[in-house]
Amino acid sequence: MSREAFVNGEYTDYSKSYVHIEDRGYQFADGVYEVFAILDSKIVDFEGHIKRLYRSLKELRINSPIQKKSYKFHIKEIIKRNIIKDGNVYLQITRGVASRDFKFPENSKSSIVIIGKNIPSNYYNDNFSKGINVKTTKDIRWKRVDIKSLNLLPPVLAKQYAVDNNCAEAWLLDEEGYITEGSSSNAWIVKNKTVITRPTSFSILNGITRTTLIKSLMKVGYKLAERKFNLRDIKDADEAFITSATQFVMPVTKVNNIKIGNGNVGEFGQKDMPLTL
To answer: Which of 7, 70, 133, 242 qualifies as a cystine partner to 167, CB 3.0-4.6 A?
Structure first.
């Protein structure tokens, strides 16, 4: 069965789906995106993602190309047309097509693309069972990473640096040596039944899974401390993990050459965290 995509109001064959060469997303990364996890053909944390999408659009002064109520319809349609059981749906909006010019075009219509794919559940489960390794590197991103924009070259370089060092994720270090977040995830450590993560600001993206997890901590007997942490704190941590829409809660068993705890998935990592479907 061939995949289908939604591009600017039309459902098209994935292999024949195109955008204009002067789309500002292509030339300027002038756009935003969201990734929705799909479990058992249901959208995870839909409302949180849409709320963040509209915040990002507002910050960049891009108009939504469709009505707010239409997003769920089109995402569900992509799930149905592509027979997605477990996987994700990627949604991208750009300022649209215009002759190349740095300043905003006056009358361009914003563009939208929605694609989806299946991801076997054992891909996540296999990684979860043994945890992942993380490599640290400098955070060289722009100063508004709270906006989920298409400006992703620094995270791409960080992720590749991690992969080149046999790690699954990179944790980014600010100028003072504190962890901001991962290249495509939020970063966490656990110490004495307290879960520690960097507070929200322009320096991190407020992850939707991050928000859901925070709401669930008391239910599983853990406290929250939103504060900065560095490599010294990591050395002293009982556990570490990342969160994201595609990896949910993924244990971290090593950061650089630092073994976390006993090097295995810890107690918190094995907790069954609720998701919003």
So the answer is: 133
Of the CA atoms within 13 Å of residue 84, those in its CB half-sphere come to 28
Integer Cα distance of 145 and 270 in angstroms: 30
Catalytic residue, candidates 117, 148, 191, 219: 148
In this structure, are 45 and 86 located in the same domain?
Answer: yes
Kindly report the CATH number assigned to the domain that includes residue 260: 3.20.10.10
Distance of alpha carbon 30 from alpha carbon 228, whole angstroms:
30
pTM flag (> 0.70): yes
Token code pair at residue 255: 């950061």
Does 107 score more than 90 pLDDT?
Answer: no
User: Per-residue pLDDT averaged across 74-100, rounded?
Assistant: 97
Tell me what the pLDDT averaged over the chain comes to: 95
Q: Give the HSE-up count for residue 255: Cα atoms under 13 Å, Cβ half-sphere.
A: 28
Q: Are residues 144 and 11 in the same domain?
A: no
